[in-house]
Amino acid sequence: MHLPGAKLLKRSLKARMTGYFLLVTLPVAMALSGASYLLSADTLEHMAIDRFEVIADHREQEIARFVADQADIIRKIANIDALRDGVATLLALPEGSPEYEGAYMSMADTLFRSTFLDYGSAAATDITELLLLRQVGGEVFFSTNPDHEHSYHLSDAFFRIGRERTYVQPVYPAPDTGLPTLTISTPLTGRDGEPLGVLAANIRVPVLVDIVSDRSGLGQTGESYLIDAHNRFLSVARFGDEAFPRGAHSAGIDAAVQGETGAGLYRNYAGQRVIGSYRWLPSLGLALLTEIRVSEALRPATRLGWMILGVGSVALALLAVGIYLITARIARPILAVSATTERISAGDLSQQAPVMTEDETGILARNFNRMIDRLRKTLDDLAAEKQESERLLLNILPEPIAKRLKKGEDNIADSFAEVTILFADIVNFTPMSASLPASELVSLLNEIFSEFDRLSEERGLEKIKTIGDAYMVGAGLPVTRDDHAQIVADFALDMIDAIDAFNQRHHANLRMRIGINSGPVVAGVIGTHKFIYDIWGDAVNTAARMESQGLEGRIQVTETTYRYLKDQFLFEDRGFIHVKGKGRMHTYILNGRKVPEAECVS
Predict the structure, then answer these.
(1) Domain boundary pick from 359, 380, 395
(2) Span 71-85, mean pLDDT?
(3) In a domain, 70, yes or no
(4) pLDDT grade, residue 254 (50/70/90)?
(5) What is the three-class DSSP state of 107?
(6) How far apart are CA 593 and CA 84, in angstroms?
(7) Domain span at 256
(8) Which residue from 54, 105, 567, 569 puts its CA 20 to 30 A from 153's CA?
(9) pTM to 2 decimals?
């Protein structure tokens, strides 16, 4: 005779047996593997640190040898008698005279020959620029980069100290490019020992990166890299990386930049756990770090721990499988409902839980199905309302701004440094509208603006607003782009073509007056009821003046926009005009696109 609750009790007993077995066996296996891991991990960590200290020592020595070799080359060049004589002769002549120009070319030829012929091109490969500076004032009177001539370096260390002795200035950002620069300088004297100035050379920084990037002994995930005093990667590939706008930081990097030397386990600049060695190279103003991921360094310890855990788990798995096979059949109806809930939670609301029994599990399945039916109907209604709301919102605001508004931002306002704005007006539409019925007037204006909307969307522009027969667009916001001026110019030419096509279709004589300007603006959402996305700034006002004081059928642009476009488009110089609120401004008329040279030849 079977008691009514015997089957339920048996099912509960199986569950308890399985749970108790796992509760006892699994922690024991984990404890054994954990102890083994900790013992071996400590040993491996110290071994990795010792190995990376040796690698870092080797890298530091290689860097020191390279810098010393470059300093020796610079000293030898400065001691070449022909160069000394050439510089002395040049400095004795008045600048700008024919004799000065001849002496300048002779001295430059001597410097080139002594650098690339006497020492060989291989020796000078790592010199990116040579500069000669006057003894007084620090003016560059010769540079292999003519753009740097007549610049002054009176306060720079390589000039001040370089007048006295050979000096290696710690890596610093170049004033013109912001890229890391290594400069070596040495005194330049005449044959009689009289000071003539300073010979300085910019050295190819990627050589330092190549030295530390040697993967010998680093394993699969190890890396060596250099960081400057501003926490920026010296590597050109990483320098200025947008992922590190405020510089790269980690416990190792920050300690090294502070002048400390050490090693240990920490998280690197990417948040990965590493074992690393770090040190500061004071003569170069750089931090040298050598790191390897913990997962690779401690892999043998991890493997040992997993092996012990696996052996202990095999016996557990064998018994657990047997118990599972018995309990799985008993729990089949509940598992069926559970599988259905998982598919529904993944988004498939068409699922129905199977009713496999007539007991409490079957009742649960039927009630669950009725609940899902009601939920499905509610979600369908909400989805339809949401889709309609989003469609209406995107007709008012740009998609990125709409997303921010939906996330709860109250005050949406952004500054954009480089934006191009276009104002356009249909010049003689107002007189034409006086003779047309309202419905026909709106229809014609809608036809024109719909074509403008299509063209602006095709060009990737942001339509700001329309007022009457005036049309305003911008480029470079709310998403910045480098070709903002070019796409606005293309759109302006498209507008001229579109209005010509409209005139042919309707036998009309409408003309466009278009103004374009580029500059910084502020953009944001205004209002809480019937809100709009608008832009402000002097650049906007100037663009409006370009349109209002432009010419019928022509596209007037400011000099700022002209500089962006002069290489790709054809312009007519309108000269200076008086602009209300701005005074005299130099403006240009955009006439069309330049034909590429290849097309001209063909």
Answers:
(1) 395
(2) 91
(3) no
(4) very high
(5) helix
(6) 54
(7) 1-62+206-329
(8) 105
(9) 0.47
CA-to-CA distance for 370 and 508, rounded, in angstroms?
65
Residue with tokens 């110290």: 46
Which two tokens mark 459? 């060009």
Both 360 and 482 in one domain: the answer is no
Query: How many whole angstroms separate alpha carbon 280 and alpha carbon 224?
Result: 13
In percent, the amount of the chain with pLDDT more than 90 equals 38
- What is the distance between the alpha carbons of residues 573 and 50, in angstroms, rounded to a whole number? 70
The tens digit of pLDDT for each residue in 233-243 reads 887 666 556 67
The answer on 503 and 445 residing in a single domain is: yes
Query: What pLDDT digit, counting tens, does each position of 371-394 carry?
Result: 877 777 777 666 566 665 555 555
**pLDDT of 132:** 94
- Higher pLDDT: 431 or 272? It is 272
Tokens representing 293 are 């991921």
Residue 119 tokens, joined = 């020492």
Same structural domain, 379 and 391: yes
Q: Which residue has the tokens 């002069």?
A: 566
Instruction: Report how many helices (DSSP H) and strands (DSSP E) the chain contains, helices first.
Output: 18, 17
The answer to whether the beta carbons of residues 125 and 131 sit under 8 Å apart is: no
CATH of the domain at 105: 3.30.450.20
pLDDT at 33 over 80: no
Do 186 and 221 lie in a common domain?
A: no
Largest CA distance in the chain: 126
Tell me how many domains the chain contains.
Answer: 4
Residue 466: C-alpha distances to residues 387, 440, 449, 473 (Å): 26, 18, 9, 9
> How many other CB atoms sit within 10 Å of the CB of residue 562?
20
Of 181, 180, 159, the closest CA to residue 151 belongs to 159
**74 in a domain, yes or no?**
no
Q: Does residue 595 sit in the same domain as residue 567?
A: yes
Q: Judge whether residue 397 has pLDDT over 80.
A: no
The answer on 469 and 457 residing in a single domain is: yes
* Residue at a domain's end among 152, 181, 204: 204
In this predicted model, which residue has the larger pLDDT, 410 or 293? 293
pLDDT of residue 8: 47
Residues 444 and 547 in one domain: yes
Is the CA virtual torsion 408, 413, 416, 421 positive or negative?
Answer: positive
71 domain-assigned: no
Find how far residue 334's CA is from the centre of its chain.
51
Measured distance CA(594)–CA(592) in Å, rounded:
7
